[in-house]
Protein 1
Amino acid sequence: MSLELTDLRLTYADGDSTLVALDDVSLTVRPGELVAVVGPSGSGKSSLLAVAGTLLRPGSGRVVIGGTDASRLGDRERTALRRQRVGIVFQQANLISSLTALEQLQVMDHMRGGRSGKAADLLRAVGLDGRENRRPHQLSGGERQRVNIARALMSDPAVLLVDEPTSALDHARGTEVMRLLAELTGERAVATLLVTHDVAQIGHAHRVTEMDDGRLSERQPGLTPGVPASSRPGGR
Ligand code: ADP
Ligand code: MG
């Protein structure tokens, strides 16, 4: 199930004037595809994710998640769509300090009033074997980010939205997290949209687009540094 964004426009009130945060943005992310949007701070990346994740309504344009047009839904239905189909990895992990890694994920089950039993499997999938019972302060920054990612996958989302996942990590740890995201995207056939200001960390993306002042433009293929052929669609 794809994420389809069409002609999105979003403005914020800025004193007497309006600030155009998203200016005619269109982008499709297919299942199993990791698309990275790179752009400087303030270019509209987090706004794009908020709209794609139905947390913000665009001024105009359409957000279609797995075939469902969110623009046609009321607030309750949008919330339901988000819970069922969208996983969001915010920049800050927002883990609960008193809970273990396993419990951070199990909370998602409790909120849905069920027990999926998926938490332990997901922690293994993100490489946290043996870390299940650690609390956030007993985990490294990279490990906390992995918990954050695993938690976003608890609902088996069709769409995964990721905001600056490497900003708090050193380069090597950041690269590992990006590789993990690319792997999970393929294995779970999720449509992943990731935004970052860090051009050095987009090597594992299948496709890269640039954002500047609320506008998207396709990046020239030759400009993507260090893309391993194996992580390109059709590359393996
Ligand atoms: P990025 O994530 O690329 O740094 P943002 O989407 O956070 O960009 O912000 C895009 C622009 O919109 C910036 O100029 C920012 O100051 C402005 N902005 C973001 N959120 C709000 C808001 N809630 N109200 C007013 N302006 C905002
Ligand atoms: Mg941002």
Protein 2
Amino acid sequence: MPAKKKKKEKKPTQKTVKKQTKEPKVAKAQPAEPQPVETQPAQPQLPEPRRSVAFIGSECYPFVKTGGLGDVMYALPKALIKQNCDVKVILPRYKCIPQEYQDKMVYRGEFMMDLCADGRSFYVGIMEYVWDGVVYDFIDNEEFFSDGNPYTNLIDDIPKFCFFAKAALSALNFMDWTPDVIHCHDWQAGLVPVYLRTMFEDTPVGSAKVMLTIHNLRFQGIYNIPTIAYWSGLPDYVFNKDALKQGYEDANMLKGGLTYANMITTVSNTYAGEIQTAFYGEDLDAHLRYHSGKLRGIVNGIDYDMWDSAKDELLAAPYKAEDVIKKKKENKKALQEELGLTQNEDLFVIGLISRLTDQKGLDLVNAIIPEVIDGNTQVVVLGTGDAKYEDSFRYYEGAYKGSVCSNIMYDEGRAHKIYAGADALLVPSLFEPCGLTQLIAMHYGTVPIVRETGGLKDTVEPYNEFATTGNGFTFDRYEAGLLLDAINRAKTTYFTQRMNWDDMVQRDMNKDVSWDNSAKQYRDLYLELKP
Ligand code: ADP
């Protein structure tokens, strides 16, 4: 397989794709005499037909990641390859991408591109890196991508992502690679469908269908019309109220993308419904209701290579479902020791790994911590974000020494240790498009306690003590009392019905939260767009 892939990566045109699908047949016809055939393990049968997809987005693990989008841009292409998709991922070449990856990039070409309304031209370089069967093409331009962070402020980000959207499409034409589907992500790639159906309609890439995935509707790329019109160089007619125009004087890059996309997806079924309501719709609910015929929800998965408790070298005691109960205690004690908490494997340890913003339900958590800390319970927080939450968690650490530990930092290694060492993980979000932390937690045998919203509702089945079914503890309305009640139900089960608790840990570890299922659904949508 890898050898074939290499061939394809050289010139992944539709022609080569067709040729490749024929290769196995030729190979089959060759052996003339009976031979012991089973020397190689059977290759998994790939579903036909093959489809080519270009991902366009602003972040991708391990090059640059600020949240769940980075995880998806990494894991979904990998999973799509197993679904017989040919995937290219187009990303900005930020200066902050670690040097080890910069060093591996290979120069693919360069050209000048007109961008602005007054015809200002910009350099576009293409640097390529092929890894695990996925081709990553980085759009190079120092003027736009030299900040230490992928996102800085809208004044800089608006021109940056106007440039990126147009450069990504121009790069596909330049590389002579027309995919069946262009799959773009969030507002930073929101102008891709708009460019595609206007200025690029009559170019080779114009024959591609386009899908736009909303990972978080809160972020939309809104700025005044003259600025976006100038930087994008888009024709005046797209700045109408059915496309980019929002209110009286603003343009909304995500809204424009939603209008021109052939298909819109978001990262869970429940969120797909929620964003059509005023409460969750972030002022785009009416627009989304209008386009609801092309809106679908597909939950995210997690990458099983990245999150594998049996092979996780960061853990004190790696484990499988068979020995999770014993090994979790060892991981718990190691975590308590590392964080300076009271060391006792019988305590109930609750983890919270999150960006510290109002989206994540932290007001509820802050309101109840004093009632949660009862001598039998510890709380471990890992996150960075708004100062008011950072400060309140620091306060609780001081007030409940030995029982609360607030790690105000971004630290992947510590996240792994908390997923493994905690008994339960809290995700009480105000809204949650999909959420990855509850998926990782379940995969690590850590019981999620979540609010029934968005992807949390779709992925965590509430525990039923009579039928002993379910994966975690849930509550519905956004109220601190209900969160406390859910935590207390979890504690009661942990301390008084340990067998039921342990069974739930087993169910969680055995639950399929991989990308396989979701990748199949994306593939089905690609086929729906390009039968
Ligand atoms: P969002 O994208 O809204 O931030 P998700 O639940 O979709 O939330 O994804 C969060 C991802 O970021 C998870 O992989 C989680 O483990 C990781 N993460 C969040 N905060 C931290 C942190 N402080 N340190 C390490 N990893 C973190």
